[in-house]
Specification:
Elements (H helix, E strand, L loop, with lengths): L8 E4 L4 H9 L4 E4 L4 H12 L6 E5 L11 H11 L2 E5 L16 E5 L13 E5 L6 H11 L6 H10 L3 H20 L4 E5 L7 H7 L9 E6 L2 H10 L3 E2 L9 E3 L1 H5 L4 H5 L8 E4 L5 H20 L2
Parallel strand pairs: 1-2, 1-3, 3-4, 4-5, 9-10
Antiparallel strand pairs: 5-6, 7-8, 8-11, 10-11
Helix pairs in contact: 2-3, 6-11, 8-11
Length: 305
């Protein structure tokens, strides 16, 4: 806003909870397209044709926790036509798997997550696209507004932790794909959300690097809350709300993030039974057994009813 003036923004796709709340609370507000569909982009185009002005469009690639990938090519086309800055959060995909900068004016990513992996430091990054029409204005604003208050030892730990980033991503991509297949094959699992198996896979593949994979984050829903609870209670992984850790981390994401708005979240596909998994570096066969044991517990409990 300092660079371009006050205008509302667009939040496209169902995002991590804080992103939408910040856009709604600060500044002139935001139009929320929570399904991330082509029809919603049609609606955005109609609004723009009718004279509505937008500062920026925010999206995640892919989204958290549904792992849907937005159509960045079409978003870029709309943004160019109607002068909307595009901000893409690529934390979940990460820049070793995907390359989204050609479609964005600004790319943001959390360095706290898989870039570090060790869960002992926090950081983030923002990249301005030098080819963007907004580059000069944004850079000038940052030169006067940005404060470098990064703690020196945090920078040291980020650099140290990132030295094996390439190797870790390859292993995490592989493990996550295996776990996605285990979950997809089980009758007690209602839906598995993972970029490789999403209806938006073709959008992800547009940005996927030749040696890239589909990332380490996935989620699953179950046919009942009771099944989800049995599975979660028998799942022998670390439990917590973060992601990108070197160890597998599981959480009842919707319960944690949207406890006071469960019906609202459900209308966008974020059901209360959703469990999110950030897959780590464990031995693949050992990790499979952990998930298979938890899935088997559902069938065992159901057989006793």
């Amino acid at each position: 806003m300092l660079s371009r003036g006050e205008m509302p923004s667009v939040m496209y796709g169902f995002p991590y909870v804080d992103t939408l709340k910040v856009l709604e609370k600060f500044g002139p507000g935001a139009t929320f397209y929570g399904f991330g569909t082509q029809e919603e982009l049609d609606d955005l185009e109609r609004r723009c044709e009718n004279g509505e002005k937008y500062l920026s469009l925010f999206c995640e690639f892919p989204g958290n926790p549904l792992l849907k990938s937005p159509d960045l090519k079409r978003i870029r086309s709309i943004a160019d036509k109607y002068e909307i800055a595009v901000v893409v959060d690529e934390t979940i995909g990460n820049f070793l798997n995907i390359h989204v900068l050609p479609y964005a004016d600004v790319v943001v990513s959390s360095l706290t997550k898989v870039f570090s992996g060790d869960s002992n430091v926090m950081g983030g990054t923002m990249i301005l696209n030098p080819q963007s029409r907004y580059y000069a204005g944004l850079k000038k604003t940052l030169e006067t507004e940005y404060e470098d208050n990064q703690f020196e030892e945090d920078s040291m730990y980020l650099e140290r932790n990132s030295r094996d980033f390439v190797d870790r991503i390859q292993r995490i991509n592989h493990n996550a794909g295996v776990i996605a297949d285990v979950l997809r094959a089980h009758p007690c699992v209602k839906q598995v959300n993972y970029p490789k198996y999403s209806e938006t896979k073709h959008h992800y593949d547009t940005c996927k690097l030749p040696d890239g994979g589909y990332g380490g984050l996935l989620s699953a829903t179950f046919h009942s809350m009771e099944d989800a609870q049995i599975f979660y209670d028998h799942l022998d992984t670390h439990k917590g709300p973060s992601l990108g850790t070197n160890f597998t981390l599981s959480s009842p994401f919707v319960i944690l993030a949207h406890y006071n708005e469960l019906d609202w979240a459900a209308q966008f596909g974020c059901e209360a039974s959703l469990i999110r998994f950030s897959v780590g570096l464990e031995d693949t066969d050992a990790l499979k057994k952990v998930f298979e044991f938890a899935l088997a517990a559902i069938l065992e409990k159901n057989s006793q009813r």
